[in-house]
Amino acid sequence: MATREIRLRVNRGERRVVIEDQTLLIELVRGLGLVGTKLSCDSQVCGACTVLLDGRPVSSCTTLAIEADGKPVETIEGLADGTKLHPLQEAFIERFAFQCGYCTPGMIVSAKALLDAHPEPDVAKVRHWMEGNICRCTGYQTIVEAVLDAADQMRSAR
Amino acid sequence: MLRRFDVHRVTSVAEAVALRQRFGEDAAIYAGGTELLLAMKMGVARWPHLIDVKPIGSLAQISASTDTLRIGATATHWDIERNPLVAEALPALAQLEANVANVRVRAAGTLAGNLAFGEPHADPPSMLIALGARVLLEGRAGSRSVAVAEFITGMYETALAADEVIVAIEIPLPGKNVRAAYVKFQILERPSVGVAALGTVRDGRFVGAPTVVVGAVDEMARPVPTAQFAGADARDAGTLEAIADAARAAVEPIADLAGSVEFKRHLVGVITQRACAALAAEAL
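YS: structure for the whole thing
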């Protein structure tokens, strides 16, 4: 059986993990106990499994774990600094941008990638970037508002 | 969850070709995996070996000469939509790429992989066919170049030989006055219909005939016979309606979740008119 050891940085920690070639990235991160990343559609449509691989948002359900070899992976658990939440997390709470919460980790991680690339997005940019993240509860309005609020917050903190 | 397979990371095209020969039907080329891994998860395809071509550095390059844009086989939609050479030379392609699937698929999926999979519900083929793009292939016998129009031979079928690897897509750059437009209608993850139009409009008339290719409704993208519209009034509703008629006649829509045959044929007409109208609207 083809197994190999890969080295990667998950959030703030360096890791060495033994995987098989067909291991999926979501299996790797959840196997590390990072269960904030959710499996839902299993077909790259819903965004619940979004993580950042080398800074880019990917569907961890359809990404091989070997792709993370030598690269940084950021999951929802990496956003807060101890008990201090990330501005996106604060904004999602303030705007009540979730109900059941299942899509929320993917939403926030995807939004993090957006704000990393475009710190001052307009509404159209947020909607276009986030259109691949599906929420069955909120109707999206509060999510878009939360992302814009977080962008404002992060701008004024700079 | 995926069934067992081995990934072979290759660092040269020659190595990829050698593995293609060695494993034959038991291996597939793997780059973004956005189509491949899905098919494997669904159980509709199984390969014991995947040949990962991403470590071949030269395949990621995007370059432009005075008359050709060359997109390497491992360039992702994400790379292409952000590339300044693409934005400058072919803004309509950059815009198309910025609207493929969703941001995660764009971050991983490649243009070459999109063509190699032969998925009928895809954005790029119609535009690439309209532009006269070619696929550069390398195999045991050497290299060859195939027009995208001939590379895709059916639903999930291509002219890629068992020992071949896609190296790049080469797109002839349209002349300075030629406008390109891609308009789609989409309710799910993939386009219901996408129409690419290419042409020059001067003083309100088409210079020569516009090129129109309809994608995503049929087994593969279909060029629309447009010779009769050479010199036609590009802003005339009658002209646009006649081109729409020709487009509707050029396709055999397939009913699926995105709609019935009748609905899709109607969409083809509407979207074709919008794409052709965009040529006139953007004309100098």
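YS: worth flagging: The domain at 57-172 of chain B is CATH 3.30.465.10 (Uridine Diphospho-n-acetylenolpyruvylglucosamine Reductase; domain 3).
IM: good catch. Also Chain B has a mean pLDDT of 96.
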